[in-house]
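To start, one record:
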Amino acid sequence: MIRAGHLLAALLALAGSAHAGTDVRPGLWEFRSTRVSVGGAPDLSDALRQQLARLPPDVQAQLRQQLSAQGVQLGNDGTVRSCITPEQARHNSIYAGPGDGRCTLASIARSGNRVRGRLNCSQPQGSADFDTTLDGPEHMRTRVVMHSAQGEIQLDSDARWIAPCGTATRQD
C-alpha cells in the first residue's frame, strides 16, 4: 500500500517535470493523473488515489515532506503542484525533474507544440520517455512511459496553470 502511494506521487512529479519550455506560463501548476497503467493493465489511477488516501497520516506526512523538499506539493486528491519560475521555463534542465539529481536528461526534441524526451533515472533505476502537448500557455497534457526492472508504467497527466508562484499554494 505504501509503495502505491509513493509510486503515484513519484510518477506525478515526473509528469510535472515535462514542461514545454518558454511557451509555458511560469507560475504554480497543478498536475492530475488521468491514466496510470502498469504493464499494459487497465487504468489504475483511481485505485492508486484511493490507496494514497488510505495511507496512515504519518506516512502521508512523510511523503508530503519528501516531495516538498523537491518543490512539489501533494494534494489530498492525488494531484501535485509545482512552481515553475521564469528562469526554469527558459532552460532544458526543467525536463530532468524536480531537482533531486536522480534523473538526468538524455535527449529532448521540440516540434510545434510538442516536446519529447528521455530521462535516465538512478532511483528508481530505469528510464522514462515523455511526450508533452502544449494546448496553450496555461494547459498541457503529458504521457510518461517509465521502463524499469519492475516493468513498464504509463502515466497520462493533465496540467493547468493555477496562479503566480507563492500566491495559491493551498491544496483543496
Notes: The chain has four helices and eight strands. Helices lie at 2-16, 45-54, 57-68, 86-90.
